[in-house]
Structures are given as C-alpha cells and as structure tokens.
Amino acid sequence: MPFSRLWLAAALLLTAAVYARLTLSYFCGFDDFTNARRALVEDTAHPAQILTTTHFGTPKYRPLSRAVTLLCEILLPNSALLHRLRNLTFHLFAVALVFGITLRLGGDLPVAAAAAAFFGVHPMAHQTIAAAIFTIGFSYTLMLAALFLFLDAYRLAGNVKVRLGASLALLGAALLAYESTIIVFGCFALYLLIQAIRGEPPAAGWRGFLVPFVSGSAVVLVLFAALRMVFVHGRMPMTPPGKILANLALFGGSLALPVDLLLLNSFGLAPLPNELLQSKRTLAVIAGGGVLPVLLLMVWLFPKAWFRRRLRELPWAVILFALASIPLSLLPFVVFTDHPSETYLYLPAAFYAIAMSLFLRGLAGNRAFAVCMGAFILLAATGSWMRTERVRGCAAVAERVMRELPLENWRSGAWDVRVTDAPGTPPMRRFGLYGYRGLGTIDPLESGIRAFEAALQLATRNRDVKGEVVPSGQMPANCANSGTCFQVDAGGHVTAFH
C-alpha cells in the first residue's frame, strides 16, 4: 500500500471506530420518525410529490434528499440500518475528501491526515451523522467532491473541462439535496480571488479555466433557480443582525473549544451547553476560549523572534481561505435561522480542521505538531464517542417503546392512541439528540409535529392510526381500560394507563 494511503487509512479507521457502534441502533428523535414516515407512507404512494413539493411545506426544496430517504425505506422499511450505513459511508468519503483537499491546498501528508482525522471525529460534526434520517452528510460530501475537482482543475492543465463538468454536476446534485451547499460558489470565488492576488493563474490559464467554469456554473444556477421558481413559494424569514453576530460567535467558539462541553456535562463538570449559554458573558468566553489559550501558550513558550519568523512563513493564503470558508458555510443558517444548531457545523468543522492543521504545522516542528494535533484529535474522539453512546441509549429507549406497544392490533382500521409519561418520570433536559429520554426519544412535544403518530404509522403502515403524546396529568378520563392509552417511563417501558 502506498505511504499516502496508510495516512488516509489511519484517519478513516479512527472515524469508523467512533461511529461503528451507532450503525445497528434504531431511530432517535422526532426528525427520524417524521421523515421516515413521510417516505414510507406518503412518498411510496405518490413518488411524483418528491419533485413537486417542498420540505414539509417550507421554502426548503430537497427532492434528492427525499429520494435517497425513500430508497432506504423501500429497501428496508422501518429500520434505521440503511440510513445509518449511508451516513457513515458518506462521512468516510467526506473524510477522504478533506484529506485530498488539504493536499491540493499545499499541505503535506501528515497535515492532510491530521486534518482528515480531526474532522472525522470532531464533536461538532457528530449530530449530522448521528441523526439517522439526515442526508446532510451525503449532500456535503457531494459538495466537497465538487470543491476537490475544482481545485484539481485549477492545478492541472489536462482535462479541465471534464473536471469542471464533473465538479458542477456533483454540485447540482448537492443543491437538490441540501440548498445550503450553494455556498461553495463563494468558496470558488474566494479561492480564485486569492490566487489572482498571489499571481498564481490556473495551470490551463485564466481563459482556459474561467470560460468553462463560468458557463457551467451559469447552467447549474439557472436550472436550480428554475426548479425553485416552479415548485417553491414563500421566503425564509430574516434573522436580526444582533442575533446573527451572536450565533456566529457561538458557532466559532463551539468549533474551537478543545474540550466538548457535552463531554464535560457527562462527567458532571458542566451543565448542558444550551443551559450554559444563557449568559452573554459565557457566550463571549466560549467564543474566545478555543483560540486565545492556544495563542497565549505559544507566545509564552516560544522566543519572540522565532515566533515572528514562523508566523511570517505560514501559508497564510490557504489558511485564510479555510478560515474564511467557515463563516461562508454558516451564512445561509445565521441569516435565515435564528435557532443555533450543531447540525450547521458539519462543513465548518471540515474547514476548521484544515486551517488548524496547516496553522500548527507551520508553527511547530514534526514532533510538536504530532503531539498538539494528537491531543486535539484524542479529545475530539473522546467527545464524539460519548455522543455516540448517548444516541445509542436514546435509540434503545425509542425501540423499547415501539416494541412494547401492541402494534399488531393497529395494522388496519382507525385507532386513536394516547401515551403519557409514567408517574415519577423526571423532566427531560434536552440538547440536540443528546438529552432525550422516555417518550422524548420519539416525540418531545414540539408544537404541531406529532412525531409519535408518525412512529405509529411508520411501524404499522396504517395511515388511519392516530397517536398523541399527552402531557403528564392530562390524560382523558375515558382512557381507562380503553386498550389505546399507555404510560411510558424514562427507560421506555410501556404499561397500560389506569
């Protein structure tokens, strides 16, 4: 095996080890059940609506994402296995692409391997893979492949049109799976600007590169805009400027923190991150907490003259490209979504891993670089391993709930099923996928979602069965002895309601 493949294999094996235990787990969380139910119960009956309708009536248009979900449900109905295998497979492809992109940006093999491994196990990339139904990782893998081929076309004189054509075709597919991948055009433009300032033209010359790139990009954008004009109605609301800045600070700090806050919570050393972030002062600490200690440590440890010389010799152009791509990646979310979610940090985690590896490699010698990046990767892998265990626990509870309900009774006919928390069930402290318990593993009582009903219809293939999670203490009196009312404890054990 060539030496370069050994470096890549190590990064892939570490990533697979962190996520492997998740692949056999059931669904976890309302997104899994509502999306799987739509695919199996609705889209199988009317597949044309995949192309003609939007994402649950919102301005989000993702037909390829729905088609991929439908395929998994057709092949293995009411099972998370294919969804989870898909997510892990494409995440491993994404790790390999980060390896290749880092090499194309001028990094050597150790830098590329460190960036790939760091991204592969970064806790801020975890939720995108851990939510079985999410196709975000699939979409961003297509986008990263488009970026890789774009860089290839820029650096190599041969087959420029072929490489750019393949890049833009993959990007077109990515746009139909997850519209936020459109930000890669910003990455393309940023890279071209940096290279023009540096005086480093494409291998095929500016004309030989820009003519096929601009014309091909125009075709992709026009087709994508035309589909949205036909099938998408309405606009996403804009987020206030102050909230945009606060969310950018939160996202940046979350990426840079060397220790996952959720890992600290698991050891009782901190509250859940969403509870911790109630204070603006805490937000400011987190925003600077990942980067400032590293910089201060370097200033203190290294002689000033040596440090200044190393700083001047850093590959700033590619580091700045990777760093600037982080806010670019977040732009669609911070502008159109006021609710911060770790799901939005999958692609930024890739660019952060590249920037961090290039930065530390430029400042440190071989041994110091290996020690520093090894420590970052170990801490990240520990955080992601713990997150995997939390999601596995959530999935086990959700599966137990569905297994202990009398589903065979409801496979035909109209039914109205109600469930509630068993007496003494502690309140759920939710953070992403990582705080669910009891009925919350299926339906956390989000307004209007009716995820428990989706889970019932998914399991029974019966569109006439209705289901509702009733808040504790509000179960109707006529439920007693009805055979359709149940209570569920924190561990997912189901008993009849009396």
How many E strands?
Answer: 4
Number of helices: 21
Order of helices and strands: HHHHHHHHHHHHHHHHHHHHEHEEE
Spans of at least 5 consecutive residues whose pLDDT stays below 50 are none
Main-sheet strand order equals 2-1-3-4
The separation of the N and C termini measures 65 Å
Report the biggest beta sheet as strand number plus sense, adding barrel if it closes. 4 strands, mixed
Tertiary shape? globular
Helical percentage = 55-70%
Portion in strands:
under 5%
The structural class is mainly alpha
Give the mean pLDDT: 87
| Rg on CA atoms, Å | 24 Å
Q: How would you describe the overall organization of this protein?
A:
- The protein has 498 residues and is mainly alpha-helical.
- Helix content is 63%, strand content 4%.
- The chain has 21 helices and 4 strands.
- It has helices at 3-19, 30-43, 49-52, 63-75, 81-104, 109-121, 126-130, 136-155, 160-177, 184-198, 206-231, 241-256, 261-266, 273-276, 280-289, 292-301, 304-313, 316-336, 346-363, 366-404, 451-460; strands at residues 415-421, 465-469, 485-488, 494-496.
- The chain has a 4-stranded mixed beta sheet with strand order 2-1-3-4.
- Strand 1, helix 21 (451-460) and strand 2 form a beta-alpha-beta unit.
- Helix 6 runs antiparallel to helix 19 and helix 6 runs parallel beside helix 20.
- The termini are far apart.
Sequence-ordered SSE layout with sheet pairings:
Layout: H1 3-19, H2 30-43, H3 49-52, H4 63-75, H5 81-104, H6 109-121, H7 126-130, H8 136-155, H9 160-177, H10 184-198, H11 206-231, H12 241-256, H13 261-266, H14 273-276, H15 280-289, H16 292-301, H17 304-313, H18 316-336, H19 346-363, H20 366-404, E1 415-421, H21 451-460, E2 465-469, E3 485-488, E4 494-496
Parallel strand pairs: 1-2, 1-3
Antiparallel strand pairs: 3-4
Helix pairs in contact: 1-5, 1-6, 1-20, 2-4, 2-21, 4-9, 5-6, 5-8, 6-19, 6-20, 8-9, 9-11, 10-18, 12-15, 12-18, 18-19, 19-20
